[in-house]
């Protein structure tokens, strides 16, 4: 496994594998099993794998969140190395900000409804930052396939939209959410939580599972109310949003009849740490 910091070194490595499938896994580091599951899939499906570790400043709308984002690159590299037995056809790309953005850039994208709801609404400019960094990485790497977690479900939809808009010949692969044993979705931000807070945060998924059982018998409104009421029983959790939407458009629904693919989304704060999660309530005929 090779570790490089510059685009020149990265492209030099890739040039020795011309015409072979390249899998790309973008990350912001503080790696956990969720990230490793993406890398594992990329190894299985490609000849070469690029893993980037880059805390992208343009996708942070909150300065404190950017400053407090966990960073421990040496540990990350050791984890990848150990997990994949020093896999030879892999390069870990650790650019600095100047390498990714040699010239100041400020782009804004139209992702349709995806630019307006949930994460887009509560993190203004976030998906513009995601678009900017991925456009840059895609242009450096030219991957055959790129891997993203369903944990960031809206981001995955945005990336699919971006690839279509830019007419990129890249297959965007969605990967299932990896969870702690207590159900908490793995996240780099979990590192900022104390043990007790992790247990409190595990209720998020427990409540999502509860409403999964309710959707057939109760109205959309009632299910929403039940979830919000459940979150309120855990004083440490501060709800930012909860939405029940069509899984393709991410438009909110009022009636189950409106969609055959329904996903519930939640964002909460716990002691200033922002966590997101989602659950597919049902998916029919697909
Ligand atoms: P991040 O480092 O948070 O930017 O995440 C890098 C990639 O890993 C994104 O595509 C995330 O959706 C994915 N990811 C993060 N957490 C998980 C998880 N618990 N399960 C699956 N994928 C994840």
Characterise the protein shown here.
It is a single chain. The protein is an alpha/beta fold and 286 residues long. It has a 6-stranded parallel sheet with strand order 1-4-3-2-5-6, sandwiched between helices. A 3-stranded antiparallel sheet has the order 7-8-9. The protein has helices spanning 7-15, 33-45, 63-68, 73-83, 97-100, 118-122, 126-141, 153-165, 195-212, 220-232, and strands at residues 2-4, 22-27, 48-53, 90-93, 145-149, 171-175, 237-246, 261-270, 273-283. The structure holds adenosine monophosphate. The site of adenosine monophosphate (AMP) has 17 residues, from helix 2 and strand 5.
Low-confidence stretches: none
Hey, roughly how much beta strand do the residues contain?
A: 15-25%
Run of helices and strands: EHEHEHHEHHHEHEHHEEE
Share of helical residues:
25-40%
Spatial order of the strands in the main sheet?
A: 1-4-3-2-5-6
């Amino acid at each position: 496994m090779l570790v490089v910091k510059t685009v020149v070194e990265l492209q030099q490595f890739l040039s020795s594998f011309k015409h072979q499938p390249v899998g790309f896994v973008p990350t912001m580091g503080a790696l956990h099993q969720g990230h490793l599951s993406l890398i594992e899939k990329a190894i299985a499906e490609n000849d070469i794998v690029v893993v980037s570790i880059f805390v992208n400043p343009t996708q942070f709308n909150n300065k404190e969140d950017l400053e407090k984002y966990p960073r421990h690159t040496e540990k990350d590299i050791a984890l990848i190395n150990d997990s994949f037995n020093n896999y030879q056809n892999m390069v870990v790309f650790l650019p600095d900000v100047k390498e990714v953005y040699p010239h100041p850039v400020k782009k804004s994208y139209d992702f349709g409804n995806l630019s307006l709801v949930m994460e887009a609404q509560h993190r203004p400019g976030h998906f513009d930052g995601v678009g900017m960094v991925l456009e840059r990485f895609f242009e450096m790497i030219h991957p055959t396939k790129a891997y993203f977690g369903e944990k960031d479900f809206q981001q995955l939809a945005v990336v699919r939209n971006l690839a279509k808009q830019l007419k990129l010949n890249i297959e965007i692969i969605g990967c299932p959410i990896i969870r702690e044993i207590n159900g908490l979705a793995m996240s780099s931000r979990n590192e900022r939580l104390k043990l007790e807070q992790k247990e409190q945060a595990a209720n998020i998924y427990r409540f999502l599972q509860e409403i999964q059982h309710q959707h057939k018998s109760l109205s959309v409104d009632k299910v929403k109310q039940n979830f919000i009421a459940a979150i309120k029983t855990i004083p440490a959790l501060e709800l930012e949003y909860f939405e029940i939407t069509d899984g393709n458009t991410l438009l909110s629904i009022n009636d189950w009849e409106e969609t055959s693919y329904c996903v519930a989304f939640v964002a909460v704060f716990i002691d200033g740490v922002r966590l997101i999660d989602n659950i597919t309530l049902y998916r029919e005929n697909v």
